[in-house]
Amino acid sequence: MDFSVSEQTQTLLARTQRFVDEELIPLEPEIQKGWWHIEPLLQAKREQVKKLGLWAPNLPQDIGGMGLPLIDLGLMFEVMGQTPIGNYVFGAQAPDAGNMEILHEFGSPEQQDSWLKPLAEGAIRSCFAMTEPQTAGSNPTLLTSRAVRDGDSWVINGHKWFTSCFDGAAFTIAMVVTDDDAERHQRASMIIVPLDTPGIEHLRNISIMGHAGEGYFSHAEIKFHDVRVPAENILGEPGQGFLIAQKRLGPGRIHHCMRWLGICKRAQKLLCQQALGREVRNGERLADQQTIQNWIAENAAEIEAARCMTLKAAWTGDHYGWKAARTEIGMIKYHCAGILQRVVDRALQAHGSLGMTDDTPLAHWYSHERASRIYDGPDEVHKQKVAQQVLGSLA
Q1: Strand partners, 159
Q2: pLDDT at 138
Q3: Where are the beta strands (DSSP E) in the chain?
Q4: Boundary of a domain, candidates 214, 235, 256
Q5: Mean pLDDT in residue range 96-116
Q6: Structural domains counted in the chain
Q7: Residue 184: pLDDT over 80
Q8: Sign of the C-alpha dihedral, residues 17, 19, 24, 26?
Q9: 367 in the same domain as 344
Q10: Which of 218, 315, 316, 306 is nearest to 262 (CA)?
Q11: In this structure, are 355 and 308 located in the same domain?
Q12: Which domain holds residue 59?
């Protein structure tokens, strides 16, 4: 098992880190002014990234990406994740990243030309409509939204929420039931729905811990009222929705965990800077206090352990396939999410009242990244699956 990083990759990571430090972190105060204010600024940074040859590290080269192997890609996500705008500026943001991956693997040539190409170029945004209020959250077998075949069209009705990045997106990939009588993992399909199609009702951008985001920062509640799209808008074959979702989630969880570790790295740096620069009494600094030293030491160990676990999961997936890596992927999903929460909390606490403000990114991460223990399956579901797999290996 070799996690060594080539000289070429080290150079790539250093270039990316320099861009994050010099071009993106200074822009962070602009985030508070809203998406529509900061979007033109980010678009200019995206053009710089393209000129530097750092665009879309997660995409194959044949559609304009860097085509990085998974471990190198994970290391890139760790660097990009150090700022809330990093993944977007480098063209590797969710949910677009996952949508591009499944369009590349399952999309027809016409779908790829209409939707994948402009998405990969960064010309449009997309969203993913799966979660439903009260019913289907982490379990897509409980979907109630439906699409009925009517001649050469699908007619969609349903209620979705937490459709992240809906506001301003060009299309969504909606996961809906297309065959009530099929086996439960073959009932649903994914259908591409342009968001200018009649019958889509945007109920609201959901307020998250007191803040209703807009644009790319939005989480929308929407309804489909007899939304009619061409039959050829189905992604893959009817009934493949669950299969495609699993294909989307495997690598996606590696991306998430490495991005969270990037956040941890930045939060740890902010904690250390605060500890070294803040005097508490009689010339003593925060850094001289045993509690702060304990936090820094615990952060260092937990971040390193989570990083090794995530790289091992990526290595296993690369060498033996995602089925062989499912236990490792389940473990890192809840383990890294928990560490993210603890590291950010310690950093915020060390900053005192400053940590509660938007003068640092800590408050943003504290509120928005709490969802890391929920989305893509809550901790409890992953723990149950891991326990079953461990018990099964002993049977």
Answers
A1: 223
A2: 63
A3: 126-129, 146-150, 153-164, 171-177, 188-194, 200-205, 207-208, 211-212, 219-230, 234-235, 279-281, 284-285
A4: 235
A5: 96
A6: 3
A7: yes
A8: positive
A9: yes
A10: 306
A11: yes
A12: 7-100
